[in-house]
Design goal:
Elements: E1 5-7, E2 10-12, E3 18-24, E4 29-36, H1 39-54, H2 63-79, H3 81-92, H4 96-118, E5 126-131, E6 134-142, E7 145-149, H5 155-169, E8 172-176, H6 183-186, H7 188-195, E9 202-204, H8 210-215, E10 221-225, H9 228-238, E11 244-248, E12 253-257, H10 263-275, E13 285-291, H11 295-307, H12 327-342, E14 346-349, E15 366-369, H13 376-379, E16 386-392, H14 395-403, E17 407-408, E18 410-414, H15 418-425, E19 432-435, E20 450-451, E21 454-455, H16 460-466, E22 468-476
Parallel strand pairs: 7-8, 7-10, 8-9, 10-11, 12-13, 12-18, 13-16, 15-16, 18-19
Antiparallel strand pairs: 1-2, 3-4, 5-6, 6-22, 11-21, 14-15, 17-20
Helix pairs in contact: 2-4, 2-7, 3-4, 4-5, 5-16, 10-11
C-alpha cells in the first residue's frame, strides 16, 4: 500500500497529509507507516462514494448481483486469512492462533457470507390497499453515502460489520480505521475490487480525520464503534446536517452468579469472557456479581483460573493473553487499578506488569474485590484484563447492581433455574444477555446496546435495515 489510501478504486497518495507510525505493542518497535490523511483526502473519498451512489453502479444492481460480490469477498478473505491475521496480530498484539486466526478471521468470513444472503432478503417490501381507491407499496432503499469509523481492538472485524451491512443495503461507504491499527483494513479495498465491487463504492482512508468525515454534508449515516464520549461528540456534530447515527459504544458487562451455578463452568466462562483479547472488548465480563453464599468458592476458582492464563508473544502458539494495544493505554489501565487500591480495594491477583515481559505493553490478569457500587472501577470502562468481584443477597439486589451503571451492552446469568433466568432476562437492561455463557455472537443475531452503550445494531438483518430507508409509494387506482 506504500503510504496510500484506497479512494475510487485505486491506491491514492494523500493530498497534504502526513505520516503515522505503526507500532507493534508486543515489542514497542515501529513496524510500518501509513498516511495520516487530510481534509482534502476525506473530500476526495466522499466525492467518490457520492458519484458511485448517484449513478447507481451499486445501488441499482440486482440483489443477486450484490450478493455475489459479497460472497466473493468472503472467499478472497478466507484464502488470505493467514496474511490478514498476521498483520492484525502485529498491529494489535492479539495472540495469532488464539484470536486473530482462530476467531476473528473465520467470523469475518461468516459475517460476509451472511450479508451476502441478506442482500437478497425481501422483508419489509410489500404492497396492499389501505385507503379506498389506492394501492400502497413499501420499498426499502439504501440511505446513500455512509461513513464507518472503526476501533483499534477489532480493526478488520469491525470494518467487515460496517462494510457488509452497508453494501448489502446498496449503500456506498467510506471507512476510517483507528489510527494505531489501520493496516489490515486498508487491504479491504483491493479485496473488494478483486471480488467485482465497482470503483468508488468502498473507500478507505487512514489517519486522524474522523471529524472531517462526520462533518461532511454528503454523508447520510455515520456508524461508530468506539468510546461513549466519542459517540456523544458524533451525535452533536451529526445534528447540523441531520445525519443518521449508528453507535456501538462502551460496556461494563456484569456476570451474575447464583448459588446453583456450576462453579467450574463459571470460572471457565468468566475468565475467557474477561481476558479474551486482553480484556479489550466492550462486551468483556468485567463485573462478577456473586450470590453471597458462593462468594468464597467463586473467588477462589476465578483466581486459580486466572493463574493458568499464558501471557506471551502473540505468535507463540501457547499464548492466551497478549499485550495491551499501546503504552498510553496500559498506563490508563494501571491508573484504574492503582486508584482502586488507594481507595481500599483488594487486589487478589495480578495488578502489575509481568516480570518476564521486558518489552511491549503487557499487564497481568487482575482480580479485585472489596469495592463499592459507586466506585470508579465499577462505573467506568477499563478496557483491560481487570475484573471486580461483588456479592449480592437476592435477585432484586443482583439486578440493581447489574443495571447500576450508564452502560447496557451485554450481561450474563449463571444459574440452572430456567424460570429465574427467563425472569431476570426481562429485567436486565442490556442488548445481549447470555445464559450460562459469556461472549459468543453469531452473524444472524443483532449486537448493540441500551443506555449509553449506544443504539442501532451490528450483525443480523437489523443491521442491514439500519442502512436503509422505507419509502411509501401510493398509487391512485
Amino acid at each position: 500500500m506504500d503510504n496510500a489510501m484506497w479512494i475510487d478504486g485505486q491506491w491514492t497518495a494523500s493530498k497534504g497529509g502526513g505520516i503515522l507510525k505503526v507500532e507493534n505493542p508486543a515489542t514497542g518497535e515501529i513496524i510500518d507507516t501509513v498516511v495520516n490523511g487530510s481534509k482534502e483526502d476525506v473530500v476526495a473519498a466522499v466525492d467518490a462514494a457520492e458519484r458511485a451512489f448517484a449513478d447507481g453502479r451499486w445501488s441499482r444492481k440486482t440483489p443477486g448481483e450484490r450478493s455475489l460480490v459479497l460472497s466473493r469477498m468472503a472467499d478472497i478473505i478466507e484464502k488470505r486469512q493467514e496474511e490478514i491475521a498476521k498483520i492484525e496480530s502485529e498491529d494489535t498484539g492479539k495472540p495469532y492462533d488464539y484470536v486473530s486466526l482462530g476467531g476473528d478471521l473465520p467470523f469475518c468470513v461468516d459475517n460476509l457470507r451472511f450479508f451476502s444472503a441478506a442482500a437478497r432478503d425481501t422483508g419489509g417490501s410489500h404492497a396492499g390497499e389501505y385507503a379506498t381507491g389506492y394501492t400502497s407499496i413499501y420499498r426499502r432503499e439504501p440511505c446513500g453515502v455512509t461513513a464507518g469509523i472503526t476501533p483499534w481492538n477489532y480493526p478488520f472485524l469491525m470494518a467487515i460489520w460496517k462494510i457488509g451491512a452497508a453494501l448489502a443495503a446498496g449503500c456506498t461507504s467510506v471507512i476510517k480505521p483507528a489510527s494505531i491499527t489501520p493496516r489490515s483494513t486498508l487491504l479491504l479495498g483491493e479485496i473488494a475490487q478483486e471480488a467485482g465491487l465497482p470503483d468508488g463504492v468502498l473507500n478507505i482512508i487512514s489517519g486522524n480525520v474522523g471529524r472531517h468525515l462526520v462533518d461532511h454534508k454528503s454523508v447520510r449515516l455515520v456508524s461508530l464503534t468506539g468510546a461513549t464520549e466519542t459517540g456523544k461528540s458524533i451525535m452533536q456534530s451529526a445534528a447540523d446536517t441531520v445525519k443518521r447515527v449508528h453507535l456501538e459504544l462502551g460496556g461494563k458487562a456484569p456476570l451474575l452468579v447464583f448459588n446453583d451455578a456450576d462453579i467450574k463452568t463459571v470460572a471457565e466462562k468468566a475468565t475467557l469472557g474477561a481476558f479474551f483479547n486482553s480484556g479489550q472488548d466492550c462486551t468483556a465480563a468485567t463485573r462478577i456479581i456473586v450470590e453471597s453464599s458462593k462468594m468464597s468458592a467463586v473467588t477462589e476458582a476465578l483466581i486459580e483460573a486466572a493463574k493458568t492464563i499464558v501471557i506471551g508473544d502473540p505468535f507463540d502458539k501457547a499464548t492466551m493473553l497478549g499485550p495491551l494495544v499501546s503504552k498510553n493505554h496500559r498506563e490508563n489501565v494501571i491508573g484504574f487499578v492503582e486508584r482502586a487500591r488507594s481507595a481500599g480495594a483488594k487486589v487478589l491477583c495480578g495488578g502489575k506488569i509481568p516480570k518476564q515481559q521486558d518489552r511491549g505493553y503487557y499487564y497481568e490478569p487482575t482480580i479485585i474485590t472489596n469495592v463499592d457500587q459507586s466506585d470508579e472501577i465499577i462505573q467506568k470502562e477499563i478496557f483491560g484484563p481487570v475484573i471486580t468481584i461483588q456479592s449480592f443477597k437476592n435477585e432484586e439486589e443482583a439486578v440493581a447492581m447489574a443495571n447500576g451503571t450508564d452502560f447496557g451492552l451485554a450481561a450474563s446469568i449463571f444459574t440452572t433455574d430456567v424460570s429465574r433466568a427467563m425472569r431476570l432476562v426481562t429485567q436486565l437492561e442490556f442488548g445481549t444477555v447470555w445464559i450460562n455463557d459469556h461472549l459468543p455472537l453469531t452473524s444472524e443475531t443483532p449486537h448493540g446496546g441500551f443506555k449509553q452503550s449506544g443504539f442501532g445494531k451490528d450483525l443480523s438483518m437489523e443491521a442491514v435495515h439500519d442502512y436503509q430507508v422505507t419509502k411509501h409509494v401510493m398509487i391512485a387506482l
